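ESCALATION

Customer reports they have been waiting on this structure for their group meeting. Please prioritize. Original submission:
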Amino acid sequence: MDVEIYTDGGCSGNPGPGGWAYVITGEKKLIREEWGGERDTTNNRMELMAVISALEKLPYLDLAMEKITLYTDSQYVQKGITQWIHSWKRNNWRTAGKEPVKNRELWQRLDVLSSGLPLNWVWVKGHAGNPLNERCDALTQKAIKSLSGSSFCIRPLVSP
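Update from on-call: job pushed to the front of the queue and completed.
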């Protein structure tokens, strides 16, 4: 089965309360969508958490995946995992400017989760009318608004 994953993350302020969301589809049907958030975070961390959360869920969905296309509106995520990570690892998790890579622990999690998967990373323009990207954005905003008093939340919307 060809699987498509759409992800989004964002913050109200940067840093500030943030949310992430993903939508997983296969054979043109919704398989799962989920969202969560953190009270004090950054936009880039939430973009990464959306992808990490989706990939962590895949083993529990019992899908025969031949190809996975992951859509993100974050060039930070798309370029980070397909281009920049190779030099970061060679340079002991340092940037070209010799600074420590921000969000290293999340990049390392994503690297482990994505290795060995038949993944195709696709950047899509945000807020451009793509229905599943817009759905993720709406769920991300819902996650941000839900952060009243708790430090973390996850809300699965479709059970596996």
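Sent to customer with the following note: The chain is about 35% helix and 30% strand.
Escalation resolved.
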